[in-house]
Specification:
With 488 residues, the chain is an alpha/beta fold. 43% of the residues lie in helices and 14% in strands. The protein has 15 helices and 11 strands. The longest helix has 24 residues.
Amino acid sequence: MTLALGLSGCLASGLWFSASFPPLGLAPLAWIALVPFLLVTAGAGGVRGLWLGGTFGVFAALPQGAWLPGVAREAFGATGLGGIGLWLAASLAFVPAFVVLGGVIGTQRLRRARFPFVVALAWGLVELSHLELFPRIPWGALGATQIDTPVAPVGAWIGVHGVSGLIAFANALVAQTIARARMRRLGLTAAAGLAGVGLVLFVEARPREAPERSLRVVAVQPAVPMQTARGTPDAGGRLAVLLDQTRRAAGADLVVWPESSIDASLSGRPDLSRRIQARVDELGVPLLFGGFEIADGRRRNQAVFVAPGVAPRVVYEKRRPLILAEAVPGWLPAWMRRALGRLVPPLRLLPGREHDADLKQFGAPELSICYEAILSDFARDPEAGFLLNLVNDGWYDRTPAARTHLLLARWRAIEAGAPLLRVASTGITARVDLRGRLVRTLAVGEAGVLVETLPLSTRVTPFERLGYAPVYLAALVLVASFGFVSHR
């Protein structure tokens, strides 16, 4: 039993990482990855199901953070104990939701007609709880494995976590087939599911009108670590690299630098501000870059806009700080801060404020900073012509996490029906089309620029209109149906 749970959990986790490396071609295995877990847990009872769900969750979560101890030690000066503690804490934060999932599935009889629907909704809600409640990071979304498959366009209707529910639905059908449920009932359920997916894919495959406008954007990847670490250049040194690479931007509509391009508050470094303004005035091209400011002893992660003859102004501030790394609980003891090194900064990152930024002439881009781009249903703007993500992944370049970060961000393009431009400090800078496909990239450690003509989208997807409201509504209907059946 433990072997089956371990196999199922590790397979789900491994598939998620392998999706970042398409040549491996393991995405189809996602459709059977959960079968051992479902066969063991279904009908086991609510109490035993809680234990089984927790065991599965541990096996699924721990491999996803196996790269954390080394990165914490090398990039942030954490102790060995601090790195291992971070890995365990980050991984185990995902387990409680799986405990509840096991409890739900344990109360369900495998051969019941409603079993696939319960599994699909329960799995989708587990992932949404990771997104909305705790740890507020959807790391390990099963639907993300389908980014380069024909199923990916379904995300424009139900989002990446809806695709996860679809995969769970298929796994439940396979489990029922193995358990010899009634084939006629299975056939009807499978046919209904295939018909719904087929209809969505047919609609998504229709040719669409060409966009009326496009924007010529220059994305600069300096390949210089944007972090306070031993041996990295100071803010002035990094700025010199960025200014030099920006010489190629003449004639563009907009230049974009990555997150933390200026690792110093511009209000405290007027010399840096003057150098930036001089280059913008020289080229006659507006610039958008990542910076920050310190207020009330705390830090705000910002996107700053500079135009020829117009001084820098903040147009966006990061709204969802990353827990532990940017948003630190007040109860965290001092010894734990010391063990985690610079992962727990002395300056906590404040949630961003609203800014009345008028960037309509640049396609009204929907801005996000770093991890915000992996948050499905975050800051949706149906009027946005394209998505712009400023990233600093310099602290885990040599791990699978950099590629997985990009993988999850690609789903935002599908959900929004708009192209995505991801501008990273050390990689991976990428242009992604509205179907989530990679058009062009700059690899990790490669200094250079992407000169892209982005078609500005005018499409509003069903997901932009409704988000995950249908999932929550379906869950309520299913719960109500349980009560109705029990009264009869």
